[in-house]
Amino acid sequence: MHAGPGLQGVETLLWAAWVVRAVHLAFGAFIFLGWLAIILGRLAGAGFGRNRLLRAVHLGGIIAVTAFAATGRYCPLTDLEFWMLERGGGPVFAREPFLARLIAAALYPAVPPGLLLALTLLMAVTTIAFWWLIPPDRYRD
């Protein structure tokens, strides 16, 4: 019978859960700010939204986010965060994804899941369209 992770293990798990949250937030910011950079770069005539490597990583990221949202699954970072919090005895929020909680708390007190899915799909479709409408540079990586 396993007694649990022990005090030092609990502290490590709780600390690690916060690191996962920070990584998750950074990923979400990359997805949203990358989307804005493509649009604003085009409007400003600047090249910062045309970096091929960043655009490819961004496109893959939004496709993954959309796939999770469309299938009703949580992001693996959300699952990892909750697992660490549960094992570490920390507060686990009603199994809502971290970014949904963050967005809901910061911007919209009650974001319906359907609206969040619609916004995610809109961002994915426009990101895919931007690949052709605002193509990345061939030589800038």
In angstroms, what separates the terminal alpha carbons?
53 Å
Structural class: mainly alpha
Return Rg in Å. Answer: 18 Å
Fraction of residues in H or I helices: over 70%
Instruction: Let me know the largest β-sheet.
Output: none
Number of helices: 5
Q: Report low-confidence residues grouped into runs of 5 or more.
A: none
How would you describe the shape? elongated
Helix and strand sequence: HHHHH
Rounded mean pLDDT is 82
Number of domains: 1
Summarize the structure.
The chain has 141 residues and is mainly α. The chain has one domain.
Protein model, in words:
With 141 residues, the protein is mostly helical. It has one domain. The protein has five helices and no strands. Helix 1 packs across helix 2, helix 1 runs antiparallel to helix 3 and helix 2 runs antiparallel to helix 5. It is elongated and about 50 Å long.
Topology:
Elements: H1 6-44, H2 52-70, H3 76-88, H4 98-106, H5 113-133
Helix pairs in contact: 1-2, 1-3, 2-5
